[in-house]
């Protein structure tokens, strides 16, 4: 008898938080003797990372699935359902509601049990479109997203739909505090004569890089010299926002303080060298970067967006500051730099929290439980004969 297969379906060929979670999950599940296939829309960083993890890869045609014409979308769905059925029974874990909405006919026809992962606070109209056909299970990356997802479901399905919050994990084998922060700074080439502020985020207006830059300006006015490293790049090869940030840095005469690092693969080393981590973002789910910073013993200052308050308890495991309040970020950064005892208390509390409640092992245990519970139920066949 063929062993059930878990299919991890990604919406992008690039690597964001959803892809990191999906690939990490696939690698861990394979280590637990579960067969895994990762589906990507084409070549790119996601495929490269999956290959690096020695995961099985398949490609699907994203453009055809999302095509406005019914004929092209239907043909693509039929082709995908055939390919999925050939691989036998199992779980289709779709890491985007939009992707699920586009391939929903294929998944219904495939006979697979359907799991949809909500990795970020989504637009309600988009969720309503995506969940016209309700899957066997919806997973949210944060508890705060459950109610909004349930409200987006068809009214007849809201009461009985299964929605489970499984908060994102952090790999504490990779992310852990520095034994010697000065040595960690030397490793990444950070200045030793000033605090280092780090942001790990795609370069985008909603992420808050401009707030971080303004906070550095406020610190400079107060005589506090810092280095602020912004690691990340724009998605889909865009460059306009990067240019905007460079112009802003130059106009504020901050070239000696603020550095755009671009894409980096050494996040653990950067965090171990950091004296503070910022994420003044207005649109999130439960950011991996915050968990990684907390696991690295770095104080976190972030906006109270979506699931962030679930791990950043204001004044206990970090500071919550409105996304555009650069004065607030500067104020609390200065407090941290001049109050090492308070900083240690904050980071130790955060470290205990992530190690006890957000470990990768606990996360994979929970996903395995959910997969088993879903796979042991008969797959729902609502509308299986229709591709519309």
Tell me what the structure shows.
With 388 residues, the protein is α/β, with parallel strands linked by helices. Helices cover 43% and strands 15% of the residues. The protein has 15 helices and 13 strands. Helix 9 (209-221) crosses helix 13. The protein is elongated.
- The backbone outline, from C-alpha atoms, is elongated
Amount of helix: 40-55%
| Largest sheet report | 7 strands, parallel
Strand content: 5-15%
Rg for CA atoms:
22 Å
Uncertain parts:
378-388
Ends distance:
33 Å
Number of strands: 13
What labels would you give this structure?
388 residues, alpha/beta, 7-stranded parallel β-sheet, 6-stranded parallel β-sheet, 43% helix, elongated, disordered C terminus
């Amino acid at each position: 008898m063929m062993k059930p297969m878990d299919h991890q379906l990604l919406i992008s060929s690039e690597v964001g938080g959803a892809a990191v979670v999906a690939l990490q999950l696939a690698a861990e599940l394979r280590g637990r003797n579960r067969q895994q296939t990762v589906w990507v829309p084409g070549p790119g960083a996601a495929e490269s990372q999956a290959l690096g993890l020695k995961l099985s890869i398949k490609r699907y045609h994203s453009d055809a699935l999302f095509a406005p014409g019914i004929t092209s979308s239907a043909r693509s769905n039929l082709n995908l359902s055939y390919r999925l059925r050939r691989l036998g029974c199992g779980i289709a874990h779709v890491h985007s509601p939009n992707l699920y909405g586009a391939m929903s006919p294929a998944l219904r026809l495939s006979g697979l049990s359907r799991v949809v992962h909500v990795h970020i606070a989504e637009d309600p109209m988009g969720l309503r479109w995506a969940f016209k056909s309700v899957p066997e299970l919806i997973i949210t990356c944060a508890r705060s997203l459950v109610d909004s997802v349930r409200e987006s479901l068809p009214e007849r399905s809201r009461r009985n739909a299964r929605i489970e919050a499984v908060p994102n994990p952090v790999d504490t084998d990779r992310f852990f505090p520095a034994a010697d922060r000065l040595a960690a700074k030397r490793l990444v080439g950070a200045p030793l004569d000033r605090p280092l502020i780090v942001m790990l985020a795609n370069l985008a207006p909603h992420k808050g890089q401009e707030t971080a830059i303004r906070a550095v300006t406020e610190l400079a006015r107060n005589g506090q010299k810092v280095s602020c490293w912004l690691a990340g790049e724009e998605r889909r090869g865009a460059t306009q926002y990067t240019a905007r940030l460079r112009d802003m840095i130059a106009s504020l005469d901050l070239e000696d303080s603020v550095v755009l690092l671009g894409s980096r693969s050494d996040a653990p080393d950067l965090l171990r060298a950091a004296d503070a981590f910022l994420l003044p973002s207005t649109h999130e789910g439960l950011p991996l970067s915050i968990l990684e910073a907390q696991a690295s013993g770095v104080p976190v200052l972030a906006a109270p967006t979506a699931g962030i308050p679930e791990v950043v308890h204001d004044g206990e495991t970090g500071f919550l500051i409105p996304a555009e309040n650069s004065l607030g970020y500067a104020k609390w950064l200065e407090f941290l730099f001049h109050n090492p005892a308070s900083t240690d208390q904050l980071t130790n509390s955060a470290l205990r929290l992530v190690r006890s409640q957000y470990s990768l092992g606990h996360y994979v245990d929970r996903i395995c439980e959910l997969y088993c519970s879903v796979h042991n139920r008969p797959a729902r066949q609502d509308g299986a004969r229709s591709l519309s």
